[in-house]
Design a protein that fits this description.
single chain; alpha/beta; Glucose Oxidase, domain 1; Arc Repressor Mutant, subunit A; 3 domains; binds zinc ion
Length: about 425
């Protein structure tokens, strides 16, 4: 995973353009990724696929022709989606277009200007002193043209058409934790799952943040109905403990199973409630979409100093953390995949258990009778197609074996059916 990150690191990604295509091409050497192109101008819900942005070079030269900023040294030097510019200007005119982090003088910040008609350069604050009064030649050799938004999709078919979604963003330029780590873990997760016998179908999306998930959701109205749950993978390679951000309702199968796996993993972790900021979970959790998608990360975005700067480099992420993230996500998916799921055939009120002799069954369970009754009621209540038996056991606090017996008894009487 770390090797893949190193290979992807130099590419200048954005929400569209060649950097994303090259990134997906490299991922495609590991898994058979379908590359999808959605033309600029396509209406997607309240948005529109933007013009495609590509950049070949950029620099700022002082009056004696010295390059004070050179895009070739770091693609973070140019704000993503900067409009093309080539002119000589005085410092006063240039200054509003220079971004630094005064509190972190050795870091180049990451900035974007996706939907604004402007341009900008990012540099280390300690280099700002080189900009003295005078004339500067400013060049951003970029294009904004009718093109397309590119994303990658890999569907791994299981025996069920019901799907689990794994989504990761591919729009950030040279930064490793955010989000080459997510790309690497998703790639190796897909690789591993492709060797397993799977109950569910797994859909991997490698998409530009926000506009990518909105585009996918808007163009897959039917497909998204089959999604049971999912995870957004972001910032999964730093040395901090795992942070899991719950799904919008906060008590879904993904939340229950994730917390169960994290508890038994015996390492520090943190769970946080859903809030409508962050990465693509925002779109999957929009009120009209409402998919139970959690966010799996290590140190939470925005809370570590390397975040969105040039310090988020290949040393900031390490193989151990990547492996640990991959292990936990794999374990969660295994547990979701392994446990059966039922549909209550009488969901409008409780079914009449007495006329089916199921109360009698309870009584024959001797000392465990009361527990067995409760287990049946939990199975009936949560067999809405969204909860497997493991998550019903976790939610109810009743042993898995007891829940399973209750489900088997209900299934025998066709009160619930396996889906
Ligand atoms: Zn980010």
């Amino acid at each position: 995973m770390h090797d893949l990150i190193k290979k992807l690191f130099p590419l200048c990604r954005s929400i569209t353009g060649k950097g994303v295509r090259e990134t997906l091409k490299l991922v495609g050497t590991h898994i058979p990724l379908a590359i999808c192109e959605v033309p600029s101008g396509t209406k997607v819900f309240d948005w529109e696929v933007p013009l495609e942005w590509n950049i070949t070079d950029a620099y700022i030269k002082n009056s004696v022709g010295e390059k004070l900023i050179d895009f070739r040294n770091s693609n973070l030097h140019v704000a993503s989606y900067s409009r093309p510019v080539h002119k000589t200007m005085p410092l006063e005119e240039l200054k509003p277009h220079l971004y630094t982090l005064p509190g972190q003088p050795k870091a180049i910040p990451y900035r974007t200007t996706y939907y604004e008609d402007t341009w900008g350069f990012c540099l280390k604050h300690e280099d700002l002193g080189k900009f003295t009064d005078g004339q500067y030649e400013v060049c951003i050799d970029a294009t904004l043209t009718q093109g397309s938004l590119t994303y990658g999709e890999y569907i791994l078919h299981g025996s069920s058409k019901h799907e689990i979604l794994i989504s990761t963003h591919v729009c950030h330029p040279s930064m490793c934790n955010d989000n080459l780590s997510g790309i690497a873990v998703a790639t190796y997760l897909a690789k591993y799952l492709s060797t397993q016998k799977l109950q569910y179908t797994y859909r991997f999306l490698f998409i530009p943040g926000t506009i990518g998930s909105i585009t996918w959701l808007a163009t897959h109205e039917e497909e998204r109905k089959d999604i049971l749950c999912g995870l957004v993978l972001t910032g999964v390679g730093d040395r901090g403990p795992i942070t899991y951000k719950k799904t919008r309702p906060g008590t879904t199968e993904m939340d229950l199973v994730m917390e169960h796996v994290l508890k038994t993993h015996n390492k520090p972790y943190k769970t946080i409630d859903f809030y409508p900021y962050g990465y693509d979970e925002r779109q999957y959790s929009a009120p009209g979409i409402n998919l139970p998608v959690g966010t799996f990360m290590r140190t939470q975005h925005g809370t570590y100093p390397e975040y969105h700067t040039s310090l988020d480099n290949t040393d900031f992420v390490n193989q151990e953390s990547l492996k640990d993230s991959l292990f936990v996500v794999t374990e969660v998916l295994k547990q979701i995949d392994d446990s059966p799921r039922y549909q209550n055939m009488y969901p409008k009120g409780e079914p009449n258990l007495g006329k089916r002799g199921l109360y009698k069954a309870m009584n024959t369970q001797a000392a465990g009778g009361k527990k067995f009754q409760l287990a049946m009621l939990w199975v009936l209540n949560l067999s809405d197609g969204k909860h497997n038996l493991l998550s019903i056991s976790l939610r109810s606090g009743i042993d898995y074996e007891k829940i399973k017996q209750a489900a088997e008894a209900l299934e025998q009487h066709r009160v619930i059916l396996k889906i």
